[in-house]
């Protein structure tokens, strides 16, 4: 009787213990107080800003899932995917097709979101299976994944004719799909429709916190241990009795599911999705976010992505034609000056300054 | 004594280069055996065939009573074969503790994992380096860490590819003591080694490979007295 009560509790405790570990920066009360303050500040933000600005902040949060997923695949498992946008776009279209056919009643949009993420994640598993079990390694993973996303872009761009429809949903070729419903939460006395604004912002903030903490636990688990070991020396990992290809495929599937989450949320946010979301520029940007922040630490990836996205949009809004050039320059500077990433460099520096409180 | 490993008619060629030319070899459980031979004799290829890194053109490998010829490397490891490579195959960016965790976590969990890690830190004298990134250990310490990774979960057969390469005489002697200790715990050991003094320290029986075939086999005294062995090392034997 006692053991049946304590076992789940000790399991919860050991899961929570994995929030900290060698695979993630930041530990101890100082870090968690800072993290709580950051989340509280983010939660208070809609009280101080107008609805449009909050909707815009929600837009930034949407991309962080794809970035964190790429962090797992590239930073932790060591496989540079240049094609996370394939899963992003596929899930975006899947959300559109499902919602345009099923409608938005009874919280069916949430079901569409889940299905879209599952479709993107499964597609990533299939691609991952052929790549890793086909012994594709190193730079060739980047080439294959880039090809996959560009093929999808080209394919979707030629779906303009009326014959390209799935049920009620016209794919619309280069112009993309639009008019799908935003996310809705079923509620007493009428559904809550999550248009870009505070309500969607809070849903996304909650999702970011859950995914971030979940990834911290996963990365500090035995599974995460094997992933970083594969990054360091895949041959040796195989010679310790692990099926390296299986682990790589699973990591790739997780990264793909996170990209798919971004894609489905993006479609729900803007109520449109176009083939260019899977194009070359779109495919390159996540790599810049993740590299600049720091690919080998999930916290650095998250913070770096938000900062780079905000900076990129500010540049675009205030008339600079050269936002993409600046992104490229930022990537170059990072690679040359702080190859581990700017946020990782800053966190390491802070760790040195506050060594007493960090240890 | 029961047989732990039996290799029959093992053959592998890369184009015209025959690295294993019908090798018949067996090892009894609990043995401490060395594989010697001049450069290019096929010692490393033999190891790769045992580990499943090369698929043989012909022949079978039986380990612990079952045919493992068709199994992949990681499946052979899971059956109880363990390996330590010549160049330390450790995870340099990870701490010593993490290296050991990755090596053992598949078999051990919770307290038994922690206990085995502590035991292996003691065994290798790396207690004070637990949190050190493995890449900054001395060469000898890296070799010991890899031995610890290979033996912590008590394999049935330990393969060692030149375990003392690059070690100081003192480190070599200590490594020999470690191997005797492991053998005493029931782990069968098969080592490729060049250093004949070390071979004498650890091996009870020795096999000489030459041109992918077994040239001689016996106790170390028998092998040294064998008329052909010295000649093949000097490169004059007509085989």
UniProtKB/TrEMBL annotation, chain A:
Topology of this chain in the membrane: Multi-pass membrane protein
GO molecular function term, any single one: branched-chain amino acid transmembrane transporter activity
Superkingdom assignment: Bacteria
Coiled coil: none
Principal place of residence: membrane
Keywords from the named record: Cell membrane, Membrane, Transmembrane, Transmembrane helix
CDD domains in the cross-refs: TM_PBP1_LivM_like (cd06581)
Protein name (record): Amino acid/amide ABC transporter membrane protein 2, HAAT family
Species this chain originates from: Poseidonocella pacifica
From TrEMBL, chain B:
Keywords: ATP-binding, Nucleotide-binding, Transport
GO cellular component: plasma membrane
Name of a matching Pfam family: ABC_tran
Keyword Nucleotide-binding: yes
Alphabetized CDD domains for the sequence: ABC_Mj1267_LivG_branched (cd03219)
One Gene Ontology term of the molecular function aspect: ATP hydrolysis activity
Keyword Nucleotide-binding: yes
Domain of life (superkingdom): Bacteria
PROSITE patterns tied to this protein: ABC_TRANSPORTER_2
Coiled coil region boundaries: none
Domain ABC transporter positions: 5-236
Protein name: Amino acid/amide ABC transporter ATP-binding protein 1, HAAT family
Organism: Poseidonocella pacifica
